[in-house]
Amino acid sequence: MISPSVRSLKNMASLMVRKRELFSLARILSGVSYLGPASLSVCSGHRKCNITRFHLPLTPSTSFHTTVLTSAAQSAITVTEEPDTLFQKLVVLVKGHDRAVLDSYEFFATMTAKELGISLGKVFEPPKDIERLTLLKSIHIFKKHRVQYEMRTHYRCIELHHITGCTAQVYLEYIQRNLPEGVAMEVTKTAMEKVPDHILEPMWKEIPTDDKPSQ
Amino acid sequence: MINSKNFRHVTNVCVSLLLLRCMTTEAKRNRAARIRVGKGDKPVTYEQAHHPHHIGHRKGWLSQHTSNLKGEDGAAERTVEDVFIRRFMFGTFHGCLANEIVIKRRGNLLNVCAVMLQKLPPQKFYFLIGYTESLLSHFYKCPVKLEIQTLQDKIVYKYL
């Protein structure tokens, strides 16, 4: 994996497309290998059929999987003059119904951050939310007999500090591609901007002879 | 009852508010998604043997999507889609389903996972799988993938 800090984006769209190809290939390969020991001929034949049937409409990954290797060789590292956005803090909040799934996803995300060299902040678990409904058990009368349902939402919060725009994009894309089903993610980015020049110096120092506005 | 099947993502806690003084009415026991204990000759799968309050503890979720999380919407549409997909699969692969269908949604992709019995020759299976995938993807305007595993017989967990 090429370290993202080396990359700068000249043509953001094409580079993102190529990254998506790489990641879609990785996902396809991992998905196919995961299906591996499903013993029977129907399943293995179906696996091949599945890949050919990828020509379904809509997903961008459908047309990419055949051309992945060539494009990976062509992707060049470009250097641009425009400065990259800097993020002071990147907060990734994942929500899910299953705590075990969130545990494993947190392990995956923190391992990715460590491998990519991103400085991790806090990784903590906000308290869960339970939404309860009390409904009538019967379709007709029997008001005293009710049924209670509840929906539990567990959270996990991962904070990353001092991260560049390119790195954030790559990290988030990788994380989101591997988001398990039934898990939602919210990302909050805190960007840092250079202080504008006109407010660096206080006004009264520059123009001492200015008349005060009429009061 | 279709209700409890569709609300697999929800844990069910029953509270009965019966007044103790009143002896004439019986306690209304829950009958949702439960197979009552009988003579011992009825084979039952793991899924059927566990009651809905075991979801999240001993059972998993049959339908996995994010619309029932706090702050997310679209729960009703997903539920309706799930009901349709289950009925459709039940009808297309009639008599071949070994267990309940698991529906997973990842982004735009709809993943329908099922375990089938080997009642049909493989060519017919291929055809039905292709037919289901293309029909559902045209109907729901999203890529639909079918992941099928086949078995010789249903796996029996216990006899009730």
TrEMBL record, chain A:
GO terms for cellular component: mitochondrial small ribosomal subunit. One of its GO terms (molecular function) is structural constituent of ribosome. It is found in: Mitochondrion. Gene3D superfamilies: Ribosomal protein S10 domain. Pfam families: Ribosomal_S10. Keywords: Mitochondrion, Ribonucleoprotein, Ribosomal protein. Its main location: mitochondrion. The keyword Ubl conjugation does not apply. The keyword Ribosomal protein applies. HAMAP family: Ribosomal_uS10 (MF_00508). This is Small ribosomal subunit protein uS10m. The gene is MRPS10.
UniProtKB/TrEMBL annotation, chain B:
One of its GO terms (cellular component) is ribonucleoprotein complex. It is found in: Mitochondrion. Keywords: Mitochondrion, Ribonucleoprotein, Ribosomal protein, Signal, Transit peptide. GO terms for biological process: translation. Residues 1-27 form the signal peptide. Pfam families: MRP-S24. The keyword Mitochondrion applies. Its main location: mitochondrion. The keyword Glycoprotein does not apply. Belongs to the universal ribosomal protein uS3 family. This is Mitochondrial ribosomal protein S24. The lineage of its organism: Eukaryota, Metazoa, Chordata, Craniata, Vertebrata.
